[in-house]
Fold this sequence. Notes:
Structural class: alpha/beta
Bound molecules: adenosine-5'-diphosphate
CATH superfamily of the largest domain: Histidine kinase-like ATPase, C-terminal domain
Radius of gyration: 41 Å
CATH topology of the largest domain: Heat Shock Protein 90
Helix content: 40-55%
Number of domains: 3
Number of strands: 17
Distance between the termini: 113 Å
Strand content: 15-25%
Amino acid sequence: MMLKQYQEEFANKNRQFIFMNAEGVVIESDQRLFDIPISSSILELHPFFESLPALFDSTEEEFDFFCIHLAFNENTFITDVKLRKKMDGFLLIITDLTEHYDSYQSVTQSRNESVIKTELTVLKNLELQERERFKNRFIHNFSHELRNPLTSIMAIIDILDATEMTTEQSKMLDFLKESNSNLRLMLEDTLSIGMIDAGKLEIQHKLFNLRKFFELMQFTYTAKAKKKGLKFVSSWDYRIPEFVEGDRLRLFQIVTNLLDNAVEYSEQGKVSFEIQFNQKRANATSLRFQVTDTGIGIPEESQEAIFESFHREQSEDRSKGTGLGLTIVKRLLELMNSKIQLKSEPDKGSVFYFDMSFKYPLPSESRWSEHSNKKAVDKGVKARKKYKILLVEDDEYVQLTLFKILLNTDNFQIDLAYDGALVLQEVVNNDYDLILMDVDLPNLTGIQITKLIRDFPFKNIKNVPIIGITANAYQENLDMCIAAGMNDVVIKPYEKEKLLNIILKKLK
Ligand code: ADP
């Protein structure tokens, strides 16, 4: 009994029942929401009701309307309205759903907002990606443009170096050398970051002599540390294999960046480089590389930030670097599935270290590969006959400098071609020992010319060694050169000795 009363109280609280005749005159109303006078016409109360008479004649008996805004007698409700045809008239049921519709609306609105937000985030990401792409393209083109002039400067410095000079001139040249090599390092750093960002840097897995690598570091940094009045110590565990498979160049980049910093940011004491043995399994070994200094140290709160691009703890003039060194170290190690670790205390010094796994071959294999390398170099040194080389290059300065590098050694006779079309003619009419070819030639590119030569029907022409020279250091480009049939590719700016070595190696 009680429950029924309560039920009614709640069930009908927000619902009004109105009974009317076929003219819309109110016969009965429970007045729960609106006060509607008995005998008044409902059609005049609100524009919504004006549409009702049209339904009165319909054969349908039930009509439902949703989300109707009704406002009269100072009351405003958002309602659902039902009209029911009865034997003796029409029943109108108005249900107040203001709360429901309001909350529904706010949910819809917030849902719309979150949809918009998601779209904005997507757009923002696209923008970031586009900016990243632009940056990479810019770095790529920019460094590409820098390589040619830098190569010329390096070569001309070498040429000048071999001439008679006053002490003052020679000092100036030293300064030029130093600036140029800094410029070159910056170019390499910027390129590396660009390539890592673009996902274009591939890690090599080639056999190299780790012991020799270690000795090179010993040699280089004993001298560098001494120059600053620092001691250099190093250690090598006898259990470490002499030859390992890995990316020597990237390891070199990582270790020299750390060692350069250790020397740069220490005023007294010592810098040490250790390769420690972690463990050996089957034919793989895990090693720890560690660089320790007794320098200015890095405060705890900066120990993360120093790995970001262009972050410097000291003022510009205190630091000579590009601010990219540690960023490169971190990113390269990530690519090699390792992680740079740091322990440091201000005024005491820093320890940077990382672990890396290497596969290593049986000792007999490694000895063989070293032997074969040595033979190639010996052959060049002993050579007496003059080799005939065709130089294909369109840039006059590069032509000139390459010419001089080659002529200085007295081992070569050189012909020059500055256009792709001329190359084929020269190749057919002369018996060249080697072709040195700029890859980025206008009109017919070095890659196209190489393919044409490799397709020649005559053995002596089709097999001539071709060394590409390119300013584009991207692996894709290098792969394309090799796929076209080049025997090797040299990247600008190159060092004189390196270029000569490669040429000697490839001579038939
Ligand atoms: P930079 O070219 O400025 O040396 P890095 O990325 O190599 O750029 O290093 C970033 C910053 O980290 C340096 O400017 C320096 O403040 C700090 N740093 C790096 N190595 C050391 C170190 N061994 N001792 C103290 N500070 C260091």
